[in-house]
Write a structure and sequence with these properties.
This protein has 182 residues and is an alpha+beta fold. It folds into 2 domains: 59 residues, no CATH class; 91 residues, Winged helix-like DNA-binding domain superfamily/Winged helix DNA-binding domain (Arc Repressor Mutant, subunit A), CATH 1.10.10. The chain has 9 helices and 8 strands. β3 and β4 form a beta hairpin. The longest helix has 14 residues. The radius of gyration is 25 Å and the shape is globular.
Length: 182
């Protein structure tokens, strides 16, 4: 009998592609454990003298039912683009390069610290680039890379969806006019 494997299997073993080419992770207990000759995790863990069962862990069965999780690429994209202010920063940069102070003015309520963090994250992902112009005073602009410009259809789709489904709150002038009509 082979010793139990204690490390995680390579990610490639858990990745599959469904019929339309979407990347998914397959977590079929029977398939995984049969292929790797590992005892299944029972949802229990040892702490001190007692064993506890996790309340949220589903009971495992010996069926071949497959559970699908999101593609790791999709998860990463949503974690990056779904952060607060990121979409508004990208939308602002769709029109061209901007300086730091212009971005702060364009995105109302965005602090300098958060803007700096988001710009750094987007730059490290290759979505924007920081252009430094050596003049006095030094001028720094941010602009989208090709990777960033490829997000244009996504941003435009969000604009279209919001136009159709998001109702804007009424301003105080509109509410006053509505009360007078009643």
């Amino acid at each position: 009998m082979r010793p139990r494997a204690h490390n995680n299997p390579p990610l490639l073993h858990n990745l599959l592609f469904d019929s339309i080419g979407t990347c998914v992770r397959r977590q079929s207990m029977v398939y995984f454990y049969a292929m790797n000759e590992v005892e299944p995790y029972s949802g229990q863990y040892q702490t001190g003298k007692a064993r506890h069962e996790m309340a949220t862990k589903p009971v495992e069965t010996n069926s071949t039912t497959q559970v699908y999780q999101m593609c790791p690429r999709y998860e990463h994209a949503i974690q990056l683009l779904g952060k607060r202010w990121t979409g508004l920063i990208l939308d602002s940069l769709m029109d061209g390069s901007r300086r730091f102070c212009e971005l702060t003015a364009t995105v109302e309520g965005l602090s300098d610290r958060v803007l700096s963090d988001r710009l750094r994250e987007l730059e490290s992902e290759g979505i924007i680039e920081r252009m430094v112009y050596p003049q006095i005073p030094v001028r720094v602009e941010y602009r989208l890379t090709e990777k960033g410009h490829d997000l244009r259809p996504v941003v435009q789709s969000i604009h279209e969806w919001a136009q159709q489904w998001i109702e804007l709150p009424h301003s105080s002038d509109e509410q006053t006019a509505e009360r007078k009509d009643v």
